[in-house]
Amino acid sequence: xxxxxxxxxxVAVISGFALRAGxxxxxxxxxxxxxxxxxxxxxxxHSAHVDETTGTLTVLSEAPLRLSVFNTFDGSSLREIEIFGxxxxxxxxxxxxxxxxxxxxxxxxxxxxxxxxxRDRSRAFPxxxxxxxxxxxxxxVFLDSDAGAVSKYSSDGKPVFEVRRGEKGxxxxxxxxxxxxxxxxxxxxxxxxxxxxxxxFSPEGKYLGVFGGDDRVARSEVRCSLVSADARRNIWVYDDxxxxxxxxxxxxxxxxxxxxxxxxxxxxxxHVDRLGRLFxxxxxxxxxxxxxxxxxx
Length: 297
Hints:
- By secondary structure, the chain is mainly beta.
- 1% of the residues lie in helices and 47% in strands.
- The chain is built from 1 helix and 26 strands.
- It has one helix spanning 119-122; strands at 3-8, 11-14, 18-19, 31-33, 44-51, 56-62, 66-71, 77-82, 90-96, 99-104, 108-112, 131-134, 140-144, 149-153, 159-164, 177-182, 188-192, 197-201, 207-210, 226-229, 235-239, 244-248, 254-259, 267-272, 277-282, 287-294.
- The strands form 7 sheets. Strands 3, 4, 24, 25 and 26 form a 5-stranded antiparallel β-sheet that branches. The protein has a 4-stranded antiparallel β-sheet with strand order 5-6-7-8, with no helix packed on it.
- It starts with a strand and ends with a strand.
- Residues 1-15 and 212-220 have low confidence and may be disordered.
């Protein structure tokens, strides 16, 4: 990819993408969420989920174990729910359809909006859930990295499909899934760290290929740690080795590259919303940071 511009010492623009810089040229987020009610910093932050239907950001954190809900418009605090004994090993969270889904090593715990567990719904989602999200149709998609599986369930707990770690010669061969994303059509994308690619599946679970369905697309040098799909079905891939975000179009071809510089310490989640804002859960800094993106969207 040809480098065509540089915004500052902190961010490079390649093929028209960049994180917006502050007036002093430094890379700054639009806002940061660092604790409920502006408390300064999450002690231990496990996961975050953006629900674009309700315009809310849900953060799962500890000390004590709780869910914190924020307005995605400006990061203002909306509500907080403490979780008592319902999630011993919390890993992930998703808030959608009037429920909070908390992924644990033992399974998915489903909480009502008042914080009480819905045990009937919880029994419908077996297995661990290191990463958890909902699509626009209310289906639940979760990643169990220990089992090497990505599963999709309908909102009432019925299995839709499952993709498991494959053997040589099997298509697709899923080697080391580290993250999962869905786009606005319901297509599912799985970041495969060891393979160095992102595999795409239809809403029904049919394998469509690498980065949009064309296996002829050459693999990049990107270490695919985290993945997100934007409103135009561009695929955003975070490389935890150098903190770089690579953007691919819906056909799997490189569309841009973003260097986060020192703005992100240790990303554990990325999400690009329909307004073109990039949400980054920075576990190393105990915050969720929201950046504006210029160009390309």
